[in-house]
Amino acid sequence: MPQLTRRPDGDPHRAGGWFVYYGDVRVGHIGKRAGVPTHAPQWVWNCGFYPGCDPGQSTNGTAESFEQARAGFEEAWRKLLATRTEAHFETWRQSRDWHAWKDRMNDERLPMPTQRESGRARCFCGEEITSSSIERHVQAAHRGLGDSYSTRS
Q1: Separation CA 74–CA 72 (nearest Å)
Q2: Phi/psi class of residue 119: alpha, beta or left (left: φ > 0; alpha: ψ in -120 to 50)?
Q3: 3-class SS of residue 83
Q4: What angle do CA 104, 8, 80 make, to 5 degrees?
Q5: What is the Cα–Cα distance from 43 to 60, expressed in whole angstroms?
Q6: How far is CA 144 from its chain centroid?
């Protein structure tokens, strides 16, 4: 069973914090709140992932300290994890990989098969793809691409 791990959130538009991962699936965030009065709780957490959770299954809260925010997250995670199956995590992975693949195709200015009259195109890896083969191709040739490729800084 994977352990929860944290990776720094490097977004300069946020006050700082960490993304929380369960294996390779991003399942939440713990971070400092931006723009709140000094007397208000300064930490926030959210727990849940989409796709993979239904609306209303994600939870969040505020806390006075990182330790309290982490404890709130971990309690919420235990409850959510008890309701998730491997299929929920796989749905998230497939979405991650699809979006990373699509973003890379766009960044490299490569057309999708649906943008060509022939219905055929070339992937950035060089393989010919069609509308009916894209999903299989992404999962077979570019599994985990979302872990290593991101257009976001």
Answers
A1: 6
A2: left
A3: coil
A4: 90
A5: 11
A6: 12
